[in-house]
Structures are given as C-alpha cells and as structure tokens.
Amino acid sequence: MNEVLTQSATELANHIASGALSSTEVVTAHIDRILEVNPSLNALVVARFDEALAEAREADKAISGKKRSRKLGPLHGVPCTIKEFLAVEGMPHTAGVWARRDERASRSAPVVTRLREAGAIILGLTNAPEGGLWYESNNPVYGRTSNPWDLYRTSGGSSGGEGAIIAAGGSPFGIGSDVGGSIRIPASLCGISGIKPTGGMVPSTGHFPYPPSGEVAYMQAGPMARDARDLKTLLRIISGPDGEDPQCRDWPLKAVDEVDLSKLNVHALPGNGRAWVRKSVRKAVEDAADVLTDLGATPMDTEFPNLSRTFEIWAAVLTECGDNYADIVGGGQPIPLVRQMLAYPVGRSHHSASVLFMMALERVLEMLPSATSSLAEEADRLRANIEAVLGPTGVLLHPVTSRTAPRHRATLIGNPLDPGLTTAFNITTLPAAVVPVGFDESGLPLSVQIIARRGHDHLCLAVAEALQSHYGRLPIAEPKWGKPLPFGLQLHLPSSSPSQKP
Questions:
Q1: By the 8 A CB rule, do 164 and 120 touch?
Q2: Which is catalytic among the residues 40, 146, 155, 182?
Q3: Residues facing 125 on adjacent strands
C-alpha cells in the first residue's frame, strides 16, 4: 500500500505545500489505486485522469523555486472525487437517469468551483442510484457499485460511489449530497466520515435532481472523507450563499477545536421505535455515548416523540414540495408505471426496482392529500421538539441504519423503513455527522450518527473527531468477496471501468 493513500486531505495539503510530496506524486498514487480497485467496485464512473495530472503539474510549478507564484489554497494539489449529481463543466451530468444519458454540464456547481479555487484537483465523478431515489447505488446508465469490504454487499446511496472509492483509498475526500441519508448511509456502510450540514448552509445550485422547492433546505451537499478531521476544512470551503440558491443562507461554521466536550449533554438513542435495529448497531451507539461520558460529557435520558414516523413525514414532505419522481427519471416524459413494473422482471425496463417502488409509494401518497398535508406539518413540530431538548450544548447519538451493509438487492426486502433513521434530520434540517466506530462480527463497518441544533455543526464535528481519536480511523479497505449466499443465489453484475472521456 502506497503510504500516500493513508494520509488525510489536510496532511497531503501540508506535505505538498512544504515540498515533502509533489501533487503529481499524490495524484498519480490515487489514479493508480482507482485503476486497481475500481474494476471490482464500479465506484468512479467518469474519469478525468489526463486533466488531473496536467493540473497536478501546474500545482507543482506554483510552489517550485524560492518564490511562490501565488498564495496557495488550503487544498492545493490535493485530489478528490465528486458525486455525478453535482455539475462539473463539460462532464456527464446524468444522475444515473437513462433519459439524461447524453446530458453534459454547461458550468460547474458552486461547490465544485469553490473546491477548485481552494486548489483541489478532481479525479472524476462517482456513481449513485437512479435519480437518487434509493440507498443502493445502481442505475441503468452506469450499473451497480459494490462495497469494498464485501463485494456482495451494497455501498449505500445515494452517494455510494463516493463512500466506496474513499474507503478503498482511491480518493482522500469527496462531495456527496443528502436528501434522506445519501451522505450518511454510504459513509456508514463503507466506514468513512461525512456530514449533512445544517439545511441551507451549502448551496445546491448545479445539482440534479433539483432540491425540493420552498423555503426549507431539505437537501444538502456535504463533504465525505476517510479522516473526520478533514470535514471542518471542507465544510468551511464549500459553505455560504452563492446568490442563486434561495434556500442557502449564512450559517458560519463555529470553531470546532474550541468545543469543550466536558460541557456537552449527550442523548443516546439506539433506535427510533420503528426500524428493528440490530444488537451490534445499538451497542455501537451506547458504547460511543460511554466514550463521551468518559471524556467528561453528561449523559442524558430523553425520549424523542414522533421519530418513529419520520419516513412517512419525509415522503409526504417530498411529495408536497419536490418534483414528481416520474419527472426526475423520465426526462419530462410520462412513465407508464404498471407497464414498467411488468417489464422489469424480464429486463425490459430502463428503471431500477427501487425507483419503481418509490414511484408507486408516491402515487399512494398522492391519493391521500389530507393525510400528506397533516404529515408535512409534523416536521416543524419535530424540529422544535428536538432543538428544545438538545439546547445549545446537546448532541444526539443515533444509528445511521438498522444494520451494517446489506447484500445487493436486499435493501428493499430487508427493512424498507430503514431510511427513517436518517430522514428525520432532513425534514428537521438539523446537522448530522457520521463517524465509524469499529466493525461488527462479520467484519463490516459500524458507525454512529451525531446530531445537533441548526447552526451547531461544530458540535457534530467535534464529537466525530473525539470518537475517531478514541476508535481510530478504519484502515483502507481492500475489495474482496465475502461469504456468498447458499445455492449460488447471490448474483453480481460485472462492473465497468471508468470512462476516460466525457
């Protein structure tokens, strides 16, 4: 293993700035790693390796000699990856939707522009589910992404390509987006860190699917990284209004390093009353709370009503203010749902099973408008309740999913209400970070979710760093096959190598 791959984005930036490493060395190491692991993972689906190497050489020129040609950005020469949902000028911007398979971005999203202005070098774009409508990264444009800890299992979604390639050492950090758990679920299943910031902290301009309309920012872009300590730097770079996103406002990130853990109140909630959370996941939450207590935090015994209903509330909110699912995946054309459902088993549909499921659920909700409106009103009450309980010094520890990474295609049949563990913090727009805390008995990553009041992202990040200091970062994953299902029932779709050209 090349030691360059084991370093955080911050460490790489410092080494490049000091001349201990060149950007060309760092970028080359990560490209080599992607070429090694990606045929098994199918995580990076569009590459820009030639462009990245050229930019790395330019980055090295900027620091050569005794006088630097310009002030270096905080990520000068550091490579990264971007979820394909965020526009990168000239590159595919399909969101895994067959009807958008020829779509190219005419300009970059502000989040991407800010990273590049900070000196980051983009290696390529990563995979996600069709239209972001489920938490397994599989779509008719790019195919399916696998988990590097067990290729029989999902990397999660919708930022599943980011989770997989970062965990496998192909990128030190990346940018995902989250409307129902899409940063946190893949971070958890792949064993890396990430944060869904306070709603409205980061602009969503240049993202497809478009964020739900209205004044409330249910969807947020956010950073994902192997090292939790990178998140504060990345979030500070990408946050702030861009003058275009009407939902984005100024939520300045307070100093993470100044958080006094001994003054925190810790509320540990190992379940939401709906999803059946496995013992190993519950224990991970409880153990993390004990770690914080040992560091001086005060444990609290509190119940949070209505968390069991958050999946229904989330679905109702998106039904009321979001685009119709058929509009997202149909390219503006109506989708004959029944016909597509009949076509799917024989491989004649251009849609994944999860998308067909979500479209069917949406149609059921549309037939119950009064119930939908009532559920949507609960989101405001739930946010007020959680913020009142947490106060300015409280954090909530909570599972990300009810289990570690499930097998491919098992997300629908295993526990379809699993996303309720994360959607609660989209409809309430609260910040929520994820950090790994070890492995379960099958060698799969275990993680916890850390939630605070709006604008208190620094508390989430401080706790994530403290837990990482205790448990340590997980090692880089070496893609491998786990234990197959009996009788050859486990199917695995062959992966494709990244396309070098847009």
A1: no
A2: 182
A3: 46, 82
Q: What is the pLDDT of residues 67-86, one digit of tens each?
A: 565 689 999 999 999 999 99
Per the CATH hierarchy, to which homologous superfamily does domain 8-65+72-245+252-313+372-476 belong?
Amidase signature (AS) domain (3.90.1300.10)
Annotated active-site residue 182? The verdict is yes
CA 47-51-55 angle, 5° bins: 130
Q: Which residues neighbour 128 within 8 Å (Cβ) at sequence distance 6 or greater?
A: 83, 84, 85, 95, 96, 137, 139, 157, 158, 159, 160, 161, 182
SS3 91: coil
**pLDDT (0 to 100) of residue 358:** 73
Half-sphere exposure of 186 (CA within 13 A, CB side): 45
Write down the catalytic residue from 22, 158, 171, 402.
158
Whole-number Å distance between alpha carbons of 111 and 326: 27
Could you tell me the residue ranges of all domains in the chain?
A: 8-65+72-245+252-313+372-476
Look at residue 343 in the predicted model and tell me its pLDDT. Answer: 82
Q: Let me know if 158 is a catalytic residue.
A: yes
Cis amide linkage into residue 158, ω under 30° from 0: yes
The residue assigned the tokens 């990244």 is: 498
Cα(217)–Cα(373) distance, integer angstroms? 18
Helix residue ranges, H only, 308-368: 310-321, 325-330, 337-343, 353-366
Q: Any catalytic annotation for residue 18?
A: no
**Average pLDDT over every residue of 113-127:** 98
Cβ atoms 131, 122 nearer than 8 A: no
Render pLDDT for 354-379 as a digit per residue (tens, 0 to 9): 778 777 877 776 776 666 667 777 88
Give me the catalytic one of 83, 108, 155, 204.
83
Pull the structure tokens for residue 261. Answer: 């853990």
CA angle 443, 445, 451 (to 5 degrees): 160
Least confident of 28-42, 81-95, 321-335, 458-472: 321-335
Asked if residue 247 lies in contact with residue 200, where contact means CB atoms within 8 angstroms, the answer is yes
| Residue 265 φ/ψ, nearest 5 degrees | -105, 125
pTM greater than 0.90 (yes/no): yes
Instruction: Over range 233-256, report the average pLDDT.
Output: 97
The string of pLDDT tens digits covering residues 189-238 is: 999 999 999 999 999 999 999 998 888 899 999 999 999 999 999 999 99
- Secondary structure (H, E, C), 150-194: EEEEECCCCCHHHHHHHHCCCCCEEEEEECCCCCHHHHHHHCCEE
**What DSSP assignment string belongs to 24-53?**
HHHHHHHHHHHHHHHHHH--EEEE-HHHHH
User: Average pLDDT over the chain, rounded to whole?
Assistant: 91
